[in-house]
Write a structure and sequence with these properties.
single chain; alpha+beta; Alpha-Beta Plaits; four-stranded antiparallel sheet; two-stranded antiparallel ribbon; flat
């Protein structure tokens, strides 16, 4: 069955109280639990903001231009779905959309090990 990565840029969490952030975290965890029960969940990770964007320019590697904070990818979920349409339907239920974020859906192409 095909696998898809849901990339999560954005989200409006600035100024959110610790109590509200706990409720938001529980919302994401409940969503993941529902995906696990249907066998669709594969893995997820939160991405730290310590990375860099590298570009090759005139035979040297340079940092930047940097991604704006609202465009930075905060994390991802990897799911299994019958097809792209089902992946979209699963993505529509992601809590990230409720909190001002965007969900980008990309199919994963596995590389064959030699």
């Amino acid at each position: 069955m095909p696998q898809y990565v849901l990339l999560l840029p954005g989200g409006d969490f600035e100024g959110v109280s610790a109590n509200d952030m706990q409720k938001i975290s529980e919302d994401y965890l409940s969503w993941v639990d529902a995906l696990k029960k249907t066998g669709r969940y594969k893995r997820a990770a939160h991405l730290l903001d310590t990375g860099r964007v590298l570009h090759k320019e005139k035979d040297r590697i340079v940092d930047g231009p940097f991604t704006e904070t609202k465009e930075a990818i905060d994390g991802y979920y990897q799911l299994e779905a019958k097809n792209y349409e089902e992946a979209v339907e699963l993505a529509k239920t992601c809590p990230h959309l409720k909190y001002g974020g965007v969900v980008e859906i990309r199919e994963v192409m596995e590389h064959q090990e030699e």
